[in-house]
Amino acid sequence: MYTFDYSCNDCEPSSVFPKGSRVCRPYVRTVLKRDTWHSHEFDALVDTGADYCSFPARWVGITDEEWETLPSLDLDTIKGDRTLRFAWMDVTIEKIGKVEIYAGLTKDRVEIGVLGNHGFLDRYKAAFDLATETFTIS
């Protein structure tokens, strides 16, 4: 079992939250790699509500020609319609190590990587404890 700290930010007081608020998210440090593709290190959100693992395509330096050869899936998401192109990738996750994941890449203007159900949470169990601002993956 691996224990992680939530990434938390204190928010200024507002009319909605006069005393301010604290927003915490379960992120893990992650790197993507496949053949000539290689991302920088980034925080990926562990998201039990996400069907797939997905990442911005620009993070791995994929060419337009490579993009067109990948199998695609059109999705209707809470942020609108989205197309993911899928590829097997080596995903190195802090503390856990290298995991091969069939992940979706998107050219949409997203700035977040997501570790979702298919590919990650179908292999690992995540437990969240916001009261202690920690979560575990086993």
Overview of the molecule:
The longest helix has 6 residues, at 64-69. This protein has one helix spanning 64-69, and strands at 2-5, 7-11, 21-25, 27-34, 37-38, 42-46, 54-56, 72-77, 80-93, 97-106, 113-115, 126-129, 134-137. The termini are close together. The protein contains one helix and 13 strands. Strand 12 (126-129) and strand 13 form a beta hairpin. The strands form three sheets. Strands 4, 5, 6, 7, 8, 9, 10 and 11 form an eight-stranded mixed sheet that branches. Strands 1-13-12 form a three-stranded antiparallel sheet, with no helix packed on it. The model has no long low-confidence stretch (mean pLDDT 92).
Sheet-strand content, in percent, reads over 45%
Helix content: under 10%
Number of helices: 1
Average pLDDT over all residues: 92
Distance between the termini: 4 Å
Largest sheet: 8 strands, mixed
Total beta-strand segments: 13
Uncertain runs: none
Integer-rounded radius of gyration: 16 Å
- Helix/strand/pairing category: mainly beta
SSE run: EEEEEEEHEEEEEE
Identify the quaternary structure here: single chain
Shape call: globular
List the helices and strands and how they pair.
Layout: E1 2-5, E2 7-11, E3 21-25, E4 27-34, E5 37-38, E6 42-46, E7 54-56, H1 64-69, E8 72-77, E9 80-93, E10 97-106, E11 113-115, E12 126-129, E13 134-137
Parallel strand pairs: 6-11, 7-10
Antiparallel strand pairs: 1-13, 2-3, 4-5, 4-6, 4-9, 8-9, 9-10, 12-13
